[in-house]
Specification:
By secondary structure, the protein is mostly helical. The protein has helices at 3-23, 31-43, 59-80, 90-94, 97-121, 126-136, 171-197, 217-253, 261-264, 269-283, 288-300, 308-339, 345-366, 380-388, 394-404, 412-452. It is globular.
Amino acid sequence: MNAAATYVIAGLSLLLAVVLPSVLRRVALSPPMILIAVGMLIGLLPLPEHLHISPIDDRAVIQHVTELTVLIALMGVGLALDRPLRPRDRDSLRQWNATWRMLLIAMPLCIGGVALLGWGLLGVAPAAALLLGAALAPTDPVLASDVQVEGPTVDDDATDLAIEEIDEDDEVRFTLTAEAGLNDGLAFPFVHAALLMAGAGAAGVAGGASDVASIPFSEWGGHWFLWELLGKVALGIIVGVAVGLVLGKIAFGAPRASLRLAEQGQPLLALAAMLLAYGVGEFVGGYGFLAVFICAMTIRSRERDHAYHRRMHEVMDGLEHLLTLTVLLFLGIALTQGLLANLDWRGVVLALALVLVIRPLAGMIALWVRRGGEISDLDQTERRITAFFGVRGVGSLYYLAYAGSHAVFPEERWLWSTVGFTILLSVLVHGVLVTPTMRHLDRHREQIRGASA
């Protein structure tokens, strides 16, 4: 792509990022829907050859752009969460109960549901089916902003956070936000399982064996469980906590005033923290996505009532909007330039099943409670909404690009078509329903307050 076209698309993305949120505030159309539609229209134009996007030929670019977009989103999500997480505090852990259930029950059920449907009923190769499940299972922190918390709550004088208001009446948004922040890192073990099954080897060497003759679990299962599932997750958490503690100490408690960035209001610490946490996490072999989110939450836990957190979140939120809208424009262009060329009935069935059946059912199973029990104060209506709104998006593109650069999947073009169609379906269904659903949720809460008054 030449420089002029890049500037035009970047400028259009920035303009739409500024205009769309206020224009569409009361309309049942989300900005992602509009951006993809605009991109699809651009893709129908007689564009020069160098402007055509191929998920195979441009895999490296797609991987790095989507990687950066997800990282920025994860940092912003971690800073946005007002509710503390204290591992040694049982009551604090209980307040995250719904999130733990969505991560430990709903997400594996989604991965297994997609993989089994693809392999067992639709004839997709085992490694490709598992990769599809891993790429599509996690909810997206990038496109799910309409159902997430908006950011650190600040009182009228814009200096301190209103601690007494932290997420008390927003269990749905909190659960979806925390889930989106954590499940990106937790999906990686299953992506690596698909690579190992495809014969890419423990180190994930590009050009691994075909997944037509998938390697049995007995040959890689032990390594995967101990290292990919447990070891790398633990390293990601440790790095995130360590980097967050060091940077939080510097920003809020450094002995020299010139180093206390919180007093200066310098918000670029958030960007530095994101890069450091991701770099160190990947360097030691852990999951960098998880390290970034944990780092953001650790920094957020320091001086929780300080308005500096809001300033850092605003910087990350602005960068996220710009990158997200740019990615969506290119996704729309790709959709009408051949990304869906390899879509068949199997891909359509998988996409519909995931969005309309597998994710909602997995969420309801995860949030099921016995009579008289509760899950972080989520009632039946709130559990249904939480189970349904599992938005798929930029993260799925990253996982697929990452896997394609580490192993050979004969069905890779079909995988891209299926993932592209699933994202399109998710953006359409969730984008149309999010505004009326959130209004219904607000009315539901008002009725509960009125009944209890």
